[in-house]
Amino acid sequence: MATRPNTVVGETIPVSPEDPEPAFGSNAIRLSCVQWVIAAAIIIAVIVSIPILWERIEPFEPTPSYRVPYALSNDYWHFARYCRQAAKQDAVLVVGDSVIWGEYVAPTETLSAHLNALSGGERFVNLGVNGIHPVALAGLIAYYGRAIAGKDVLLHYNPLWMSSPRHDLQTDKEFRFNHPELVPQFLTRIPCYKDPYATRFGAVVERYLPLRAWTNHLAIAYFDNSDFPAWAVQHPYENPLKAITLGLTAELPGPDATRDRGSASWAERGITPHRFEWVEADKSFQWRFFQRTVEVLLERGNRVVVLVGPFNEHMIAPESRQRYEAVKRDIEAWLHKQRIPYLMGVLLPSEQYADASHPLREGYALIAKEVLARLARLPKPGSWEPVDVAWASRP
Q1: Chain segment 45-101, per-residue pLDDT in tens
Q2: Quick check: 362 and 352 in contact, CB under 8 A?
Q3: Contact 309, 158 (CB under 8 A)
Q4: Is 138 left (phi over 0), alpha (psi -120 to 50) or beta?
Q5: How remote is the C-alpha of 326 from its chain's centroid?
Q6: Are 86 and 93 in contact (CB under 8 A)?
């Protein structure tokens, strides 16, 4: 009688002609090709539907003075959700870094808030993100700001990011900068960015997989900005579902959660004039990626107006002022050549700056008046043309 191996005990067992050898090994269940397709479809449906369903569960009703809370600055899933809500409104979307976000002021004192107050409506939405820089902003708009299409956009550019090779991300020595997940991970080399390939790959996956971005949202909003394993180690006796339930009950962090930086001017803070090592525009990483952001927004049918500055020129040491003026000329020349409406920010009184680039409350009020005066020279929002240069001149 023939025998066959017994893979369980390592022996042989007899096999009769009526007992043929199994077609498969020790698998209890074997899926056919059709069954694999069905299983894959179910998994994909779950991956896609969970973040969508979560939006129906998690309360989020932004007010006219809403801004992305400081605690959620790295929560790009939440930013994308906010963009989708903002894009439904008939409003101008104000996009930029902490100058737009309002580093030293309350949500009701930001540029967009002053613009709304002066225009007597809710025409402007604050889409500023604290700590964002132009290289990261390009990634934020490209991957998480897809809802910004066919809209009127007031886009801010802060010359601070060109004020030194370090700010411009050009130093070879590694240092931690804001929002590394948003910068190019493989195709463009950033000298100071040296994260391992596994981290870079994870950042790329999050851009295209909503479930990954959603789990990051949960970690930031409900688990103290930690992934679940790390949170579980720090809270061994707490129920993670309870943490989420309590978070939903209390709602997300609010825009009033400021950094409490105070309202003193830069001189009152003891800051002295500084010698900035300005990077030339044609060699600047930050400027190149800001240009890319403009191009992406225009490709999506948006009508873009650029606000440059206002940088605190009172803080520039005499020996670096000439290079700063050259940087400003290059910025203005590119915007004019591309026929993009723009406003070179007016220089505020010295006491209205908190540091090199952030205005205080009175400064925002003055900028808002200038912006509205310039917008009045353009066609009404909703009919701006990308090539309109009616605003392309200094005040």
Answers
A1: 776 777 777 777 787 888 888 999 988 899 999 999 999 999 999 899 999 999 999
A2: yes
A3: yes
A4: alpha
A5: 29
A6: yes
Q: How many Cβ atoms from other residues are within 10 Å of residue 376's Cβ? A: 9
CB 208 within 8 A of CB 44: no
CB 144 within 8 A of CB 72: no
**Could you tell me if 298 and 304 are in contact, meaning their C-beta atoms sit under 8 angstroms apart?**
yes
The CB-side HSE value for 158 (13 A sphere, CA atoms) comes to 27
The pLDDT value given to residue 260: 60
Confidence of residue 210 (pLDDT cuts 50, 70, 90): confident
> With DSSP H G I counted as helix, E B as strand and the rest as coil, what are the percentages for the chain, rounded to 5?
45, 10, 45
The domains located in the chain, with CATH, are 88-196+266-375 (3.40.50.1110)
Inter-axis angle of helices 210-222 and 33-57, nearest 10: 40
Cβ count near 92 (within 10 Å): 24
User: How far apart (Å, rounded) are the C-alpha atoms in residues 170 and 152?
Assistant: 33
Q: How confident is the model at residue 3 (pLDDT cuts 50, 70, 90)?
A: low
CA dist., res. 298 & res. 50, Å (int) = 32
Torsion angle in degrees (nearest 10) through CA of 28, 33, 36, 40: 170
Task: Answer yes or no: are the C-beta atoms of 342 and 392 closer than 8 Å.
Answer: yes
Q: What pLDDT does residue 121 have? A: 82
Beta-bridge mates of residue 304: 153
Please check the confidence at residue 249 and state whether its pLDDT lies above 90.
Answer: no
Residue 136 vs residues 71, 149, 179, 199, 259: alpha-carbon distances, Å? 18, 19, 6, 16, 21
Calculate ∠ Cα 317-319-320, nearest 5°: 75
What is d(CA 231, CA 223) in angstroms, rounded to the nearest whole number?
A: 6
The pLDDT tens digits for 13-32 are 555 555 555 555 555 677 77
Rounded to an integer, what is the distance from CA 219 to the centroid of its chain?
17
In this predicted model, which residue has the larger pLDDT, 244 or 314? 314
- Per-residue pLDDT at 384: 46
Q: Is 98 helix (H, G, I), strand (E, B) or coil?
A: helix
Task: DSSP letter for 353, please.
Answer: B
Q: Are 315 and 274 in contact (CB under 8 A)?
A: yes
